[in-house]
Each structure stands twice: as structure tokens, then as C-alpha cells.
Amino acid sequence: MQKWKTLSSEYMYKSPFGNHRKDCVELPDGHKINNYYVNEYDDWVNAVVLTKERKIVLVQQYRHAAGDCFLEIPAGKVEKGETYEEAILREVEEETGFTSEQRPIKLGEFFVNPATQTNKVISYLILDAFQEYTQALDPTEIIDIHIIDIDQMENLIATGKINQLFTVSAYYMVKSYLMSRLKEV
């Protein structure tokens, strides 16, 4: 399959949160789209944080675009100069105060919405986590910590109490990962 050709690009605006770009593109059959809009964002990281007691560490925070509070796994964007692993460890510590002596296990790297966005979400599993610090939140963050039994997750998802896609997909990746480890034993 052939890629589209970018004939021109123009930034509609730039901000610390992301950029909005207008491209003029030509499809392989010669058809042109003069106003194809692209959102440029930094990559995101998230993690299912699991304690030795099989508890999942969740955060609850208000999400203005959706106008509601969401129960989610810890997440955030990668800062300049950080590896994905460094970013998720920092985000988990800042948002929850949790850490682990084990390295995060990378579950996958996925484009968020490749039709209109440039970024990826990189999902991790952090095992044997324990709370060592207090939260170190940004001035605009108000985050409540919730610690639940892993067996409660599917009910929370099924009843819509957890309805954030990246949290749901990461949980099911962890479930698959843990099930495959049990088969190896």
C-alpha cells in the first residue's frame, strides 16, 4: 500500500500541550485533501501498578474535556530527555507515592489515534509496588488514590465505573500477561 504525500503543512497553533497542524495531502490515486488536520502530542505512558497483596493502585481525577471524574491507572506524558521507563516511574511516584524494586514490564506501545494524532501510549506493569512517598502533584492536579483488589477490576469495567479506554486495555493486557506466567509455572 502506498503512503500519502504531504504537499504542505501549516501550524494552526502551538502550545505546551500539543500542536494543531493543517496538511495538504495527495492520495496515491491523485485525489487531494486540502485541509487534513493533525494533532501533535507527546507520547504518553501508563501503568497497572500491582502490590504484593494483588491490589491495583488507581487514581481518580477530574477530566475537563469529558466533564467528569475518572478512575484510572497512573499515567502521564514523557518529558524531554526521559525514556518511557523513566517517565512511568516518575508519574507513578508523583501521582501515588508508590514505587517498586522491580523494573517495569513493558506490555506494549500503541498509537492512540493514528488518523489524527501523532502520539503513542506505552503501557507497563509494575509488580510488588509499595507506597514509599507522598504524592508530589503539579499545581493543576487533584488526584485521589484508590487501592482495589485485582478481582474487582472486571466488575468496575462492566458496570462503567471504569470507562477510560487506556485503563481498560492495560488491565486486559496485564490479565493476559499474568495468565501466561501461570501457565509457565
Descriptive key words:
2 domains, Nucleoside Triphosphate Pyrophosphohydrolase, eight-stranded mixed β-sheet, three-stranded antiparallel β-sheet, alpha+beta, 11 strands, 185 residues, Nudix_hydrolase, globular
Percentage of β-strand residues:
35-45%
User: Oligomer, anyone?
Assistant: single chain
Report the uncertain regions: none
- Quick check: average pLDDT? 95
In angstroms, what separates the terminal alpha carbons?
Answer: 43 Å
Number of helices, counting only DSSP H or I runs of 4 residues or more: 3
- Helix percent reads 10-25%
- Number of E-type strands: 11
CATH architecture of the largest domain: Alpha-Beta Complex
Order of helices and strands: EEEEEEEHEEEEHH
General form: globular
Major beta sheet, specifics? Answer: 8 strands, mixed
CATH fold name of the largest domain:
Nucleoside Triphosphate Pyrophosphohydrolase
The class by helix and strand makeup works out as alpha+beta
Task: Please write out the topology.
Blueprint: E1 5-15, E2 18-26, E3 32-40, E4 44-51, E5 55-63, E6 68-72, E7 75-77, H1 84-96, E8 98-99, E9 105-111, E10 120-131, E11 144-149, H2 153-158, H3 165-184
Parallel strand pairs: 4-10
Antiparallel strand pairs: 1-2, 2-3, 4-5, 4-7, 5-6, 5-11, 8-10, 9-10
Characterise this structure.
Its cofactor is Mg(2+). It is built from 3 helices and 11 strands. It is α+β, with helices and mostly antiparallel strands and 185 residues long. It has 2 domains: 5-40; 44-184, Nucleoside Triphosphate Pyrophosphohydrolase (Alpha-Beta Complex). Strands 4, 5, 6, 7, 8, 9, 10 and 11 form an 8-stranded mixed sheet that branches. It has a 3-stranded antiparallel sheet with strand order 1-2-3, with no helix packed on it. The longest helix has 20 residues, at 165-184.
